Amino acid sequence: MSAPLAELSSVATALDELNRRLVAIADQAASNHDDEMASELFAVERALRGALRRLHRLTTPRGRRR
C-alpha cells in the first residue's frame, strides 16, 4: 500500500472508531427518550458510514472489493 493509501486507511480506522462512539451516544440518547438528539446523531452516523464506504473503496485493492 502506498503512503497516501496507508494514510487514508488510518483515517478510515479513526473514523470507524468515532462512528462507533457516536452510535453509543445516539443509542443512549434514544434510551433516554431524547428523540431530537438521537435523530441528529443517527443522521451524522449515516453520513460517516457513507464516508467510510467511500474511503474503503479508495483503500481496498480492486481484486479484493466486494
List the helices and strands and how they pair.
Layout: H1 3-31, H2 35-59
| Helix percent band | over 70%
- Quaternary structure state of the chains depicted: single chain
Average the pLDDT over all residues and give the rounded result.
91
DSSP strand (E) fraction?
under 5%
Return residue spans where pLDDT drops below 50 for at least 5 consecutive residues: none
**Sequence of secondary-structure elements:** HH
Which structural category do the helix and sheet elements fall into? mainly alpha
Tally of contiguous helical segments: 2
The strand count comes to: 0
Q: What is the first-to-last residue Cα distance? A: 19 Å
Task: Please state the CA-atom Rg, rounded to the nearest Å.
Answer: 15 Å
Biggest beta-sheet profile: none
What general form does the structure show?
Answer: elongated
Structure description:
The protein has 66 residues and is mainly alpha-helical. Helix content is 82%, strand content 0%. It is built from two helices and no strands. Helix 1 (3-31) runs antiparallel to helix 2 (35-59). It is elongated and about 45 Å long. The two termini are 19 Å apart. The mean pLDDT is 91.
